[in-house]
Amino acid sequence: MRRSSLLGHAGEVLGQVLTTRRSADLLLQEFYRGRRYLGAKDRRTISGWLYGILRNHRVLDLALRQALASFPPETRPRSMPPIGYCAAYLLKFEQEKPEQILPDVAGIWRTATTDIDPGRFLDALAEATRDLRLPDAPAAKAAIEHSLPDDLVVEWFERYGESGATELCRATNTPAPTALRVNTFRCSVEECRAILAHEGVESRPTSLSPIGLVLQKRTALNALASYRAGLFEVQDEGSQLLGLLLEAKPGERMIDACAGAGGKSLLLAAEMRDSGEVVALDVDPGRLHALTGRAERAGITII
C-alpha cells in the first residue's frame, strides 16, 4: 500500500484514540477487523506509527503548537488534525526531511485544513522539532521529554532525585520486548519454546519469570498454530510476576479485581490447574468480553 494511504489509516485510528476513552489496543484491533485488506506489513507500519505517537505525545504536541505559533491565529485549525501528529513523528523520531514527507501528507493535510500551506507548515514543524522550547524546571522538562504526567514526574524527582527520576522516566517510555506467558496448563516452557522454534519463531526464557519467553523479533503471533492451540498468551514479565506472587493453588478461590482482558486471571487459572474458581472483575465490560475467547483457547473453564 502507498505510504500516503498508510498515513491516512494511521491518522484515522489515531483520531479515534485521541477522542475516546477506549484503550488504543482494543480500538486498533477493531480497526484492523474492519479492514481485512491491510497486510501484515501494513499493520506493523500503522501500529508502529500509532504507538510511537502515543508514547511521545507531549513532545509532538509541543512541537506542533510551536510550529502553529508562527502562523496568523485566524489561519490555525481549531484542533490539530491527526496527520499533523503523524508528520511530527516522522520528522522528530524517524529523522525524515520535510521534502520526503510532503508528497504523502499534503493531500490529507489539505482536506483537514485549507488555510495553511502544507509545505510551509512542514518547514515550521521541522524547525520546531529541532529546537523545542522546553521548560527550565528539570521535572517539568523531563515530563514533556518522556511524555509523562507532570504530577507523577514531580513525585519521582522528590523520591529519587534528578538522576534516578530521569532514568526511571527513560525506562518507563522505552518500548518493551514482546514477552509471552506459557500456558503451563497445556505445555511446559521448554515444549512451547521448541514448538515456536519449529514455527520459525526464536525466543529466550524471561530473566525473572519462570513461565515466560521473550521473542527475538516481533511476529504475527495470531497466525501461529501454537497460538490458536492456546499454548501461550502475550503478557509482559511484570504482569507474570504479579500473578505468581499470589501462589495460587488448585481448589482455591481467587479474585482478579481489575481484570481488564483477563491476562492475570488466565495465569491464576493455569497455576490452579483449572481447579477452583477465579472471579474476574472490571469496570469496562468490553475488556472483559475478550476473556471468554481467550479462556476457551487456553482450555480454562474456572473463570
Give a brief description.
The protein is of the alpha+beta class and 303 residues long.
DSSP strand count: 6
Element string (H = helix, E = strand)? HHHHHHHHHEHEEHEHEHEH
Average pLDDT for all residues: 94
Uncertain runs are: none
Q: Estimate the global geometry from the Cα principal axes.
A: globular
The largest sheet has its strands arranged as 2-3-1-4
- Give me the number of helical elements: 14
In angstroms, what separates the terminal alpha carbons? Answer: 42 Å
* Largest sheet composition: 4 strands, antiparallel
- Compute the gyration radius: what is it? 22 Å
SS-based class: alpha+beta
Strand content: 5-15%
Helical fraction equals 55-70%
**Oligomerization state:** single chain
Secondary structure: elements and pairs:
Elements: H1 3-19, H2 24-33, H3 40-55, H4 57-68, H5 82-93, H6 98-112, H7 118-130, H8 138-145, H9 150-172, E1 179-182, H10 189-198, E2 203-205, E3 212-215, H11 225-228, E4 232-234, H12 237-245, E5 253-256, H13 263-271, E6 277-280, H14 285-298
Parallel strand pairs: 5-6
Antiparallel strand pairs: 1-3, 1-4, 2-3
How would you describe this structure to a colleague?
The chain is built from 14 helices and 6 strands. The protein has helices at 3-19, 24-33, 40-55, 57-68, 82-93, 98-112, 118-130, 138-145, 150-172, 189-198, 225-228, 237-245, 263-271, 285-298, and strands at 179-182, 203-205, 212-215, 232-234, 253-256, 277-280. The chain is globular and about 70 Å long.
